[in-house]
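Reopening this one. Same input as before:
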Amino acid sequence: MKHWIEAARLRTLPLSVSGIIVGSIYALSNPTETINTPTEVFSWKIFGFALLTTLGLQVLSNFANDYGDGVKGTDNADRVGPQRAIQSGVITPQAMKKAIIITSLLTLLTAIILIYFAFGKDNFGYSIFFLLLGIAAIVAAIKYTVGSSAYGYRGFGDVFVFIFFGLVSTLGVNFLYAKEVDPLLILPAISIGLLSVGVLNLNNMRDQESDKKAGKNTIVVQIGAANAKVYHYTLIITAMLLVVVFAVLSDYNFDQYLFLLAYIPLTKHLITVYKNQNPKLLDPELKKLALSTFLLSILLTVCMISLISDIIVNLFLGGR
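Same output, byte for byte:
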């Protein structure tokens, strides 16, 4: 069990749910024209199964990465980061393959239940669309490193992370509640997507040399270490700016800028990356950036709700 928990890489899980939290609380704090109160738009069932589905996708992605890089030999003695399960021999490729299949099926099941709670027997078109989206997310999580056409080996991993853990996570879950897309929510969705890509970029910066030897052509391998740092600054700073723009366009009051506290660890992180000369020392920064993104999502959702205590009381007394 210890080895499976390590293979699931729990430190990545808070990052994966950041978009779910922001998209859900935005729905809670912004009733639509047809839904007038927070308790009408928010559903604990949707929230719970959205979290389960996203966590399932993240664990599936981690298992698949362990398997794909392990069987390809990418995870070898040259790898800078912590040893993975197949690399160290504590889990066999056959066992990991079974885990990938089981996790895929469980994630698909939670996705189907989530879709049912969101749309019921109505909105058949929406149900089919989100079902296809869920299947696409599962396939994408596996194909990142698994197979001869693994897109992570061609530098497209950043695109997958941005789309599924940024746009789809935030905007998708919000649509499950509100049944419409709020253009303003696109800004924090992009921000979370960029910060998530930042975590992947850190991982690739740390593993640049071993990836290059193994033929894993990540963006970092393609553009080099110096440009990868510039790319990283661009990701993080753009994400920070877009959240501020979101707050301004949302007419936040002064006390609703509490989320700026999350910019302190993000700024410290940027300084650390700027000064770094040894890729191995970037490994602790993955956890710090992931937790900083999670902190930003929590603080931002608190700022979205002006009378949060009243809404929480209403949810527990009259919510679904």
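So the earlier flakiness isn't reproducible anymore. For the record, The chain is about 75% helix and 0% strand.
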